[in-house]
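Appendix C reproduces, verbatim, an entry submitted by the partner laboratory led by Prof. M.T., so that reviewers can inspect both the input and the predicted structure.
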Amino acid sequence: MSTRLLSVALDLATRRVPVLPLRAGKVPFGNCPACRDNACGGRPNMKTPGPCTCPHPCHAWAAATTDPAVIIGPAWAPVWKQAAAVAYHPGGIRLTVVDLDHADAVAWARLTLPATRTVPTTRGEHWIYRGAMPSVNAVRDGVDIKSTMVYARWLGPGTGTMTALPDAVRALIVKKPSPVRPATATVPAGGGECRHRTPAYLERGIAMAEHRITEAASGVHVTVYRTFLAVLSVHGRCGCLTDSHAARLFAAAQTRGENARHCVDAWSNALTALGM
């Protein structure tokens, strides 16, 4: 067993960083015996959650946990014997990693992006900012954005002061499809103004969703998921939603006892259910 990697994972978990083991090739393991060796039908490289009979997705970023009972439990105990690295879910702790894959990408970042905490990688650097955003690969040559619904290798705490996620990073994905992004006007097929961009329509929908969550008499977790599903089914494909709208829904859920990880999981599962 790799006691060093297990120790790293447990240490991160005590600091509320959701972690998971990686095997050689930076590929994650399944989180339960039923899904070992991709038996549940997930994608071959297991980098994204696949359909399975478990109560929740159990691959890749969705397997990341802060629960020591899982980390040292029977499902993961044999995994640590083969583990090559530890990964974490940046979006689960409201972080964004700008993954710079080569020297030219690092040089570009130093000229373009605000200084923040940096972590050396095999070929480049990770620049880590406070704040979460959608994850997109190849936003430019050698640059990936890792935040929500992805994992990143843990390569140490890095150096420098972590700064707030800048608009310069958010702007890198403006032309990429994303269900939650900075608001931009969206014109539906057939012309005319998208009805969802009407302030009263969108505001009423978000306010109703907040009320539904905060007034739930029971089954809060299910209510949060179903509310997220309803909001995304109406507003998730046309570009209406912004990070501030999602933050309002997350805040409503957290007033009823949901933690940040539960909110991220519910939102991500709703996106998956809608094929987004």
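Helices lie at 3-14, 68-71, 103-112, 167-170, 199-214, 220-235, 243-255, 260-273. Additional entries are available on request from the coordinating office.
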